[in-house]
Amino acid sequence: MRLLVIGGGPAGVSAALQGAELGAQVTLVERKRVGGTSVNEGPAPVRTLARAARLVRDARSWETFGLRGSAPEVDVKAAVANAVRVADYSHDVKRMSEYIASCGVELVQGVGQCWFVDPHTIETPDGQRYSGDAIIIAVGGHAGRLPIPGAELALTYEDIRSLDELPVSTVVIGGSDTGCQLASILVDFGSQVTVLEYAERIKPRSDHDVSDALAAAFTAKGMRIVTGTQATEIERSGEVFLVHHLVDGVRQTVAADLVFFAVGWPGNADTLRPEAIGLQTARGYVTVDDRLVSSVPHILAAGDATGLSMLVPSARQQGLVAAENAVLGTRRRNTHEIVPTGSFTDPEYGSVGLTEQEARARYDCEVAIVRYDDLLRPVVDARSGGFCKLIVESNRRYILGAHVLGEYSAEIIQMVATCMATNMRIEQLADLQFAFPTFTEAVGMAAQKCVRQLGIARLAQQWSELRPQAPDPDTAAVRSDTWP
């Protein structure tokens, strides 16, 4: 069984390694270098810049802890260089390529753009051809741009690596995950940031409480957020750019030194010339069924190339599913309800499962929220702005979703995801003990609050009620065989 994997990002690497483990002869073809956007341009370098921005933020609170000193100056060029160094680390230190090869995968990288020459074969610019009995497409996507006049004047998050100085003012068009991360980093560095979002709220796909709290935190930092607006044109005016946009049909203009697009993530599948083999695509995404099979039965797809979920954990999971179905001929479905996600904004947020709005539309549910300022650790760290929200199905008492906003939320959410994956009921979670003082205590407190709201007993209480009670020594003799 020969398996050809096209694309070396999280989905492609996951698929290739799984295919090799299942006994297939695997070839992984990557046009640049393995790691994909997540390592080379996306989460890894962006998270590094977010860390630098967090340090700047922390310096502003020194006096709260009785510390004295001048605030650090931001050297954007040096910060970006460090972000690039972190991306290179995955290749030079972790030896990603060597590891993949050691697992029995033939790795071909740096070959440039490839394309289909027949349903089982691709060709690279140097004339080399690679074939497979089954093929998994994991070519990812790219930063989108609005089809408006002057679009070429704007940057995307991929271009942040080329910055050598901090813009005095910035406009970010798009207020979802990528836009919020860019805006958060730049405002903490000291740029005057305006976010233009087409929807009625930033983070429109997130839980409403997360969107509202994040918008409030951004506004408190001096960020300007304009929702329900449509960018219509970008033009240069001397040393600045003018971004024209519509609000309730009225044209408005905002000026800035730099403009960033964060408006979606089109797929790269059309670069493979899919029409040559009858492979159906839509907006650059491979059209797949719930088993990740395309319109060509032996060709599957995974990751951003499917358009299903633009998350690294989802991409890895889809890679596993696609490899299993391709190599073993199974019909495993792709499900990603329990895939945690976190974003490196300030404040941070993490989510897993359904939003409150989605849950209430499908289930009878209970919602419990614990504020960070009810815990000791956030107060100790002077980071008491935040919350933990649990959404629980009322009858069976399973956790349907969780949303955490505030310090360490992207880490905290992993615990709730584990509870959901193991079908833990809310009273079981409420009975767990947490290290003190920690941010994670918010999960336990929210679980206990939910148990009280549901009117059910915690597990320990249920167990104590089932245990036999020792007889009263004043009224009966206590025998050793009646009570341990």
Description:
α1 (10-21) runs parallel beside α8 (312-328), α3 packs across α4 (76-92) and α3 (43-59) packs parallel to α6 (177-189). Residues 475-484 have low confidence and may be disordered. The protein is an alpha/beta fold. It is built from 14 helices and 23 strands.
Helix tally equals 14
What is the count of distinct domains?
Answer: 3
Given the helix and strand composition, which structural class is it?
alpha/beta
For the biggest sheet, the summary is: 5 strands, parallel
Under the CATH scheme, which class of the largest domain? Alpha Beta
What percent of the residues sit in helical stretches (DSSP H or I)? 25-40%
Spatial ordering of strands, largest sheet: 3-2-1-7-18
CATH architecture term of the largest domain: 3-Layer(bba) Sandwich
Weakly predicted, low-confidence segments = 475-484
> What is the molecular shape?
globular
Amino- and carboxy-terminal Cα gap: 62 Å
CATH topology-level name of the largest domain: FAD/NAD(P)-binding domain
- Tell me the Rg in angstroms: 26 Å
> CATH superfamily assignment of the largest domain?
FAD/NAD(P)-binding domain
Mean of residue pLDDT values: 91
Topology (elements, then pairings):
Layout: E1 2-6, H1 10-21, E2 25-30, H2 36-40, H3 43-59, H4 76-92, H5 96-102, E3 105-109, E4 115-118, E5 121-123, E6 129-131, E7 134-137, E8 155-156, E9 169-173, H6 177-189, E10 192-197, H7 208-220, E11 224-227, E12 229-237, E13 240-247, E14 250-256, E15 258-261, E16 281-282, E17 285-286, E18 299-301, H8 312-328, E19 341-343, E20 349-353, H9 356-362, E21 365-371, H10 376-380, E22 387-393, E23 399-405, H11 409-421, H12 426-430, H13 441-454, H14 459-466
Parallel strand pairs: 1-2, 1-7, 2-3, 7-18, 8-15, 9-10, 9-15, 10-11
Antiparallel strand pairs: 4-5, 5-6, 12-13, 13-14, 16-17, 19-20, 20-23, 21-22, 22-23
Binding site for FAD: 112, 304
Organism: Nakamurella multipartita (strain ATCC 700099 / DSM 44233 / CIP 104796 / JCM 9543 / NBRC 105858 / Y-104) (Microsphaera multipartita)
GO molecular function: nucleotide binding; oxidoreductase activity
